[in-house]
Amino acid sequence: MLAKSAEPQTYNRPSWFAAGMPHIWLPYAQMKIAGDPLPVVATRGSRIVLADGRELIDGIASWWTVCHGYNHPHIAAAVRRQLDVMPHVMFGGLAHEPALTLARRTDAGGP
Q1: What string of DSSP letters covers 23-48?
Q2: 50 bridge partner residues
Q3: Picking from 1-5, 21-25, 83-87, which range would have the lowest pLDDT averaged per residue?
Q4: Which of 50-54, 61-65, 106-110 shows the lowest per-residue confidence on average (mean pLDDT)?
Q5: Measured between alpha carbons, how far is 41 from 46 in angstroms, rounded to an integer?
Q6: What are the backbone dihedrals phi and psi of residue 42, each rounded to the nearest 5 degrees, phi first?
Q7: What share of the chain has pLDDT > 90, as a percent?
Q8: What's the whole-number mean pLDDT along residues 19-36?
Q9: Helix, strand or coil for residue 57?
Q10: 69 has which bridge partners?
Q11: CA trace torsion 76, 80, 83, 84 (10° rounding)
């Protein structure tokens, strides 16, 4: 987490940033006093690339990136394959093989 400084941030903000910020909720910030978040344009490995070209090393990582990193080739390929076939189907009277296979593997204690 970046500490809020007394001086305003002076980084380049992409057009999508200003257009989108009024429409989101920032779940980990007190929105009345928090400064703007840093606009991210890419990730790779343990690095986060900001809109102004700076790179951060993600030392706190979210649950999934802490163990796999960003854009892990195996995970990205699996997601692309699944998106080509079936991005999402809810269980409202329906079932599908990927979810049932995963459920069976998880119930059995692992792969």
Answers
A1: G---TTS-TTTPPPPPPEEEEEBTEE
A2: 40
A3: 1-5
A4: 106-110
A5: 14
A6: -165, 165
A7: 16
A8: 84
A9: strand
A10: none
A11: -170
Tell me if the pTM is above 0.85.
Answer: no
Cβ atoms of residues 82 and 72 within 8 Å: no
Q: Would you say how long the chain is, in residues?
A: 111
Strands (E), 1-111: 40-44, 47-50, 55-57
CA dist 71 to 7, 46, 67, 92, Å? 34, 9, 12, 31
Closest by CA position to 9, among listed 61, 51, 60, 58: 51
Q: Tokens 């002076």 sit at which residue?
A: 10
pLDDT at 87 over 90: no
User: Do the beta carbons of residue 31 and residue 25 sit within 8 Å?
Assistant: yes
Q: 22: which DSSP letter?
A: G
Question: CA nearest 22: which of 31, 13, 12?
Answer: 31
